[in-house]
Design a protein that fits this description.
5 helices, 56% helix, 4% strand
Length: 169
Amino acid sequence: MAVCLFTFADLYSKGLGTLDHILTKGAEFAAAKGVSEADMLEWRLIDDMNSLRFQTFVVINFAKQWTARAAGVEVPADIPSDLDLKGIKAAIAEAKAFLAGLKAEQFEGRDDVALKVELGNGFAPEMPIGQWLSGFATTNFYFHLSTAYGILRSKGVQIGKVDLFAGGL
């Protein structure tokens, strides 16, 4: 199945804009409640789920790394796991700049190129890049973006569906 892989760069950039927006609203809410940004980044939906900090890292890393794989360019390293909110916002801006630097021609003819990726515990499926990007990467990107939204909403941050489109339609 051929998809226009380049469109994912814009899709992910918009999602990063949404992440930045909801983090700003979360930080404003936390400050008003006397909660530090560091504590806010450790908020979770439930105890055995990953923190807001972790959710942001996955969104940022997936946006850069999976588009890089699809474009056939060097895959950026993970962002550091100890970033504060200012560092996370800088990483969002850097990821958006990376995406803005990608060109449509880098993605041309790459839909069916086979890619094998180690996902952990020896599980390393191989499938076409178009399938990786449109199925695996995008599903995970939106899962973690939605989880970040859910964490903030569960703590009382006044965000709604319209905030999910803050990065653009």
